[in-house]
Amino acid sequence: MTAQFEPAEVGLLRMAARQLIELLEAAESHALGTSVDPALRRLLPDAYTDDPEAAAEFRRFTAGDLLERKVRNARVVIATLGEELADEIADDAPETLNDDDFDEPATTITLDRDDVQSWLRTLTDLRLTLAERLEISPDGVVHLAEDEAPFLHGIYEWLGMVQESLVYAIDV
Fold first, then answer.
1. Helix axes 149-171, 113-133, angle to 10 degrees
2. CA nearest to 8, candidates 73, 101, 79, 128
3. Which spans in the chain are helix H?
4. What angle do CA 123, 118, 63 make, to 5 degrees?
5. What's the rounded Cα separation, in Å, for the pair 162 and 123?
6. pLDDT value for 46
7. What contacts 162, CB < 8 A, 6 or more positions away?
8. Would you say 11 and 86 are in contact if contact means Cβ atoms under 8 Å apart?
9. Which residues are CB-contacts of 151 (< 8 A; sequence separation ≥ 6)?
């Protein structure tokens, strides 16, 4: 399966996946059950909400592998977007932008069956993280009232569109 992304979209996906990796790798370094980050609690929910001891025991045996898989999935997204080339371009990027900078061609990516699964899982993780940051309630209402809320909500919606497009593409 193939998909095309504009340069800004590639940059956004790459940045979001890198930030997800940073969040997950930071979680590996401390006790997950006591994490104060609500996004991590959303990504790694307790298996037993009414039994903290059982939840901690379950987490002890499963969290490491789950975090590892989530990081691996996000790395697949970055790799399929061509991270090496993008890093070279970023190193040579000018300090200011001009009209010619927006004339870059779209990036075409090819995903195999495993890549598609990594993309779907990473898009889900990114949307869960943003939903927590935006304080989106179960009824879909955004409760965050900060200046960046509309921008983050736009990214949340766009990631959902990418995810939906991918699901439709594999369903055909």
1. 150
2. 101
3. 7-28, 38-43, 52-80, 83-91, 113-133, 149-171
4. 85
5. 8
6. 80
7. 13, 123
8. yes
9. none
Give the integer Cα–Cα distance in Å for 57 and 11: 39
Overall residue count recorded for the chain in this entry: 172
Token pair of 11, please? Answer: 């940059």
- List phi, psi (to 5°) of 109: -115, 150
Spatial separation of the C-alpha atoms in residues 30 and 66, rounded to whole Å: 15
Q: What pLDDT band is residue 85 in, cutting at 50, 70 and 90?
A: very low
Q: Distance between terminal CA atoms of the chain?
A: 11
In DSSP terms, 30 is beta-bridged to none
Structure token digits, residue 18: 């890198």
Residue holding tokens 């993008």? 86
pLDDT at 162 over 80: yes
